[in-house]
Amino acid sequence: MEQEAKSGLNSSHWASPVHARFRQRDQALLRLGESLVKEQGIVSFRFSELAPRAGCSAGTLYKHFNCKEDLLVAIFAKHVELLTERQPELMSADLNHAERWLAMHLYGAMAVKQTSWTLGFNALAGAHGIVDKVSDYRLQEMQMFVEQACSTAKRVVEAARIEGQLVSDDSEIEVAHATMVACQRGATTMINNPMIAKNLNFEEMAKLYQSLALITNTLNWRVGLTSESCERVIKAVEEQLLALEQEHELAAAF
């Protein structure tokens, strides 16, 4: 019984005849849950208020989410999913390989500005016992979207090597990628943080571009970043951020 409770949703939910209705209700609860979290705060929001707000029983709510942490992970996963859906557009943007690789990481950091409150749970996830409360299904869903985001950025590097546009070895690429991700993640914790962002001014995309460019230039690209790259990359990223914002608004409307 304990294992069943921990597992939460399983494949039988999605394979059942009521799959479509269950999925529809799951998405509705996610939207209402996100609204509740934004209204009451990520730490103090009352999970018990979600069922009456959704017009369902507590039993129905617990069929979808084991606890408030389960809901938070599901909301965060949904935002990561929307973010990754825009990445292929950057893959096909009119940029060289070095610019494209930088654009992927710049986009990931700046997209957080639209969902900065979700970073609260991202930080809390490291606290003792938090993730232990989340169902296996929701953790697997979250991991799937995170892996998709990482693999897309790696494909840029793989394509560059295949085409002979990147001649750095595996160890150099691994170090550069890890440093790029660390810089990106650091920037996401500063954006919209009034205690830090104002001093470092990371809300200006050009400032973050310069930081990521230093890392990008450690690799041996046949065609690297140029004086025009900043404008080109920022334009491509801004286009995808606008599309992402429109998708968030559309998702919230249904």
UniProtKB/TrEMBL annotation:
The name this protein goes by in its record? DNA-binding transcriptional regulator, AcrR family
The UniProt entry, under InterPro entries, shows: Homeodomain-like_sf (IPR009057), HTH-type_TetR-like_transc_reg (IPR050109), HTH_TetR (IPR001647)
In alphabetical order, the GO MF annotations are: DNA-binding transcription factor activity; transcription cis-regulatory region binding
Keywords of the record, alphabetical order, are:
DNA-binding, Transcription, Transcription regulation
Which ranges does the entry annotate as DNA-binding region? 46-65
A Pfam short name = TetR_N
Q: Domain HTH tetR-type, which positions?
A: 23-83
The record's section on PANTHER family has: HTH-TYPE TRANSCRIPTIONAL REGULATOR BETI (PTHR30055:SF234), HTH-TYPE TRANSCRIPTIONAL REGULATOR RUTR (PTHR30055)
Organism whose genome encodes this protein: Ferrimonas sediminum
